[in-house]
């Protein structure tokens, strides 16, 4: 069960109203690399987790991400607060309020007109948050790798936001949030390697030799060798004929059909057959 | 530039028409862990990649994933082929065709009625593929971690599909596809560690000591210690007062406003103020 | 800031593994009327709320809804737990595992194959949760009405789930969750009527007489009068000519254009003009 | 059945081409609080309605909302009309046309480049309209509450658009549309209270005493009492131990498993168990 | 402006309650080829249409499609009506009601549990309708081609539904709706060819000879010649070297950068460079 | 199987960094009329195609569209390349970087902050690509018509992009891409008319006389006659009474119910009946 205290995990002091900056901050509120995605990623994993240690870890970090959602959402609310009252009360002329939605090229009109200055679960382009941002599949060695990657991505998006932010209070709070992603990434790394073995993931072994084969499908200038396709790590297949098909078969897709199915598909094929010999007049000629 | 050969990377031999199984296969065609997501993940990364070796790697694997999309899509088409003709030509009674959409509890009606038995970019539940499944952000140490995790997830979904598949030809092709994820994961691991350093990602350092602090936000029975929150790796903070706020400040969110903004927001607050003292009659009482 | 205790707000005792029932429960986990939508609805409102009493109320209920998300998610996890191990470990034959995904017509294949039995933020049909389910707009008298309606809807979806659930432990927990929606609805009703006046919402008055006019646009058998369109409450307009246009004008849409714009649009109109006099041969005739 | 007359319900006179303003108007065309959502909300409810009076009401208002969709869409078309011809005919230099897509910070490039200046079912940020905006559930006391809330929200979004609009003809038409939401809200209120009782919604009673309990989950500075959580209306529970669990049980989630299920889940848990004692080397150390 | 009459365009007589069949019918209510998509496709085109004849045509057919939406929605409502009351009133045991959601493998649980038996704007798989289904771009020769294609598709989906429907009243109404698509397709064909010329669409001519070149990118067994790539219609390019690049250039993507940009991108490239010579230890080896 | 060569189908030379222009180009990368939609449209059709000639055609064009995706994506990457390094390395002050995200009203912040300057599968407004953009249904005469329309639309969006582009290298590459749509459209026209007959599509004949009836549903000023509704092609029905209902029946929707169903629905109707006679006090009066 959750509890809440009205104090934030990190204080938020905003120097001046800036809806354009608020809009950018939405990337980490309702964007794909943002805090709701993080919180829900770990929380949903936790609920089905069988290992007590990982369950505790996932709940700890999920809960903290909810607190981060609160911090970044409070930044959005504070950056919009001045403009919010002016639009709601119409204390300015229409032309001035119209400019405030686009001023200096900012892109805050969705937040202001649709959401009244409140933080919404969209990214800075207005895309609705959706659960496709969460890639958990209920297998711990996969989900921990996904979590490691997600923390790394969130760290970088915070870094970019810091790079474009001038307001010192906002910058500091963003720096704190960015830092916590580093700590979380480390925890997830430890938890992944506390499972042994963890590579390859799952139970079913690969089909040799394809688990150590590298297929050079993109050729021409720029072909490069490195540890990722080196002979010491991989069988390097570059002759295109060897790909067609790698089972040594004919590379065709075939299906067995019952007589009734065969008859039905033949009727369909016949009815919609193309006549390649003719050069029919078409809509294109009619339209030229 | 791409080229194509009509032979598949792996031959597909389907033993009998099975639209229910075809529907499950859509997970790896148009699902979040499927081959389109994989191909587009690596392809879009490749286009903006500055490092020639990684660009080649990403193009090699992106191209192979397109060939895998073709293999799994061909499996779907072959599993549906018998039913497709029967529905299109109405060679059976309506009641029989209706049953074929749901028979044995299968869930193939979307594929059959809407898509005519063709492979569609949906998952097995009918959810449209969307680009939110791709989490690339244009930073190589993050994107490689995302790719490692994605390959791990795809391996497991193939494993699950293999576990529920009886058709030997389908099983074999799935096994090949599953195996290639292992090889790709290894390549991406090698490419990640060919960048030094790669942790923490990006350029901006964390704010000490929060990059090595673990916050025990979920407490009560089940609290567990492990390497992911051990004292040797982290400062372990469990007293809730220390979280409020971790900057040592008041934990409030505040914003500086101009006088005009102050006046406007005060007018808004006043106009919409709640009166907590009264116990007003409400719609609920009216409705009881 | 949030804290968490590993005990649930309500104990969950599941009598037997039932992935089909688990799938239905997803309606209140990741569905439009579910607990994530509720929690995020109130939480995002709270962050921008100016009134201290409402802010406290919104945070109290948002936090409780997160705990409900945990309860319903735990129900999903427990109902899937038996099947999860069997699929992951392949302890059954493929044909048997295939049947378990569809047995008795259940629709659990997405949860099992894609999510490994974990609770996912989808509804029972597999539709990804999206933030369009949240209708908050940052105006308290609107948002409270939205909240009242949302609690009413959630109450009913729980009622339907209870009606189809046989497992006594699940039924009891659902009953608790359903009951809390009643209490929350009442709180929101009280908070709405603590704002005076609250109807019509906002600041701008309507344009008389259209704020008390009822337009009888659907006519014919079935036309009914009631308090919602009675003469004591409304001017009832039934003559269709009076709707065209209600401003008394010509009902046209016109725009003033600069000479350059006029010339450009005329060129466009001319280039794409239709010739109604002719009876051209078309693709349809070609194709017959 | 529907019929149509080419005159609008309210005349639209646009003073000058303004694609930036047109883009904002899309909020009420293809946005969540817009006229398509309204029309479809009432229309889908009407089709399944059992009560003749409500069916008539829903059809009357659904039909009128379609006419409002036509008015707001005509505003969009007229505001874009000048720019449309210029882009289609390329009557200006590229640099000038490029500027027209972004001039004065407007955000009209999607409308112009993708939709050719026509009204599209997107909001002002380009988000595609989706049916998740409609929250009807087929229970009249819920749906009427949802309708009341929806009309209130639409009223406010119109108010905000009016506040930022300088064009007198557009302003007047918006004022009419805003006004109609007030009238519709009143009709839906009357229809709700014509059902007795309507609170709590549905048939199943709550589980006492939880239907009149208020749980103070958010604590600390800012805790407030009001009619929404007063002792006269609620049992106020503030001691966190009383929430864990409110059934008086252990607050755990447990499931009964068959022996086969138990064995399978144990095998899964064992295979993926974490080893908390070790401090394994991880990818993070490798990458530092 | 729209008006409505409560009689349908075609009478609907449903022989027995069948939620599974109702669910299939949703394809033409809230599916991509359904009546809402059709109505909105033509309606949004009409609002921006410059040609009076086409505007009238688009409004005529848009309005009729709304009436078709009403017919198919009424079929859904009638097919669900029996089950709706039983679930709402819980007149059956839970086990029986549970079975009714999945009976005979039907997939009606979303409609019944979430939507209470009402027609919802989803397809038969539960996918929410979204405006991406509408492909209008505001150019008449394109939009008419899109409309022709849309009518053809809708005709076929109705044909498939007819093929699986046993209920004579439903079958007849579907037949009527299917037939109207034929008539509409013909009207749109006539309207397209009333614009002269209409091919190629738009104003800008192609770059010879690429407007009559066919590139044989897919080679190997199965290469076929027909009128679509015949020598009389196209220059047939099959040598892959001729595709790289077709401008006769180097086929590279290059950009001019300022000195500051050059320096910045070099710093980025350097910081994230890969070292292909080494064979680093990776997370994969750690995890094996 | 696919293969790749690192040279592009058309060389891309970008004159200067321009993230605003890059953002517009996304329409043809991840937008509804863009190259991914085209490639996937033809590729998925090909996999289920029964006719060898059409299968070859679809694979040829699908493969070429992937190469076009590469060209347009490379344009995006090159236009962003200068800005990418500056944001990643923070070589400019925050205020300057902030301006670069919005400068000259461009809308590139999503690409820069979220995607690090890489091409993403979104349109220029940030809308995620989704598979609802693909309208294939597995019937060749429909799918070819859809393809013809899709090529026409893509041609026009390229034309608009050309009209707003000043950079000569970008303009030339766009011109090439635009031209290829013309060639593809012609191929699909030939393939459509190689099927005889192809109108009406499918197997089931229409229900006379409704396949040649035109219903004049939109009346009033602006009614127009043309070949699309002429007497020589259609029976023109303008009297509204003839539409109600066209089967000559009562225009009602009725369903047969079992006695149990009748009783249940009656109980539901009774419980939620409205009382039209009363004028109840409502929430609106309480709130005024």
Question: Describe it for me?
Answer:
The structure is a homohexamer of 288-residue chains. Chain A is mainly alpha-helical. Chain A folds into two domains: 19-193, Up-down Bundle (Ferritin), CATH 1.20.1260; 205-270, no CATH class. In chain A, 50% of the residues lie in helices and 6% in strands. The first copy, chain A, has ten helices and six strands, in the order E-E-H-H-H-H-H-H-H-H-E-E-E-E-H-H. Chain A has helices spanning 19-25, 27-30, 35-47, 52-89, 94-102, 109-114, 140-163, 168-193, 259-271, 283-287; strands spanning 2-5, 12-14, 213-215, 218-219, 235-237, 253-255. A two-stranded parallel sheet of chain A has the order 3-5. The longest helix of chain A has 38 residues, at 52-89. Chain A starts with a strand and ends with a helix. Chains in contact: A-B, A-C, A-D, A-E, A-F, B-C, B-D, B-E, B-F, C-D, C-E, C-F, D-E, D-F, E-F.
Topology (SSEs and partners):
The structure is a homohexamer of 288-residue chains.
Chain A: E1 2-5, E2 12-14, H1 19-25, H2 27-30, H3 35-47, H4 52-89, H5 94-102, H6 109-114, H7 140-163, H8 168-193, E3 213-215, E4 218-219, E5 235-237, E6 253-255, H9 259-271, H10 283-287
Parallel strand pairs in A: 3-5
Helix pairs in contact in A: 1-4, 3-4, 3-7, 4-8, 7-8
What is the CATH class designation of the largest domain in chain A? Answer: Mainly Alpha
Q: What percentage of amino acids of chain A are in beta strands?
A: 5-15%
Count of distinct strands of chain A: 6
Spatial extent as radius of gyration of chain A: 28 Å
Give the SSE string of chain A.
Answer: EEHHHHHHHHEEEEHH
Helix content of chain A: 40-55%
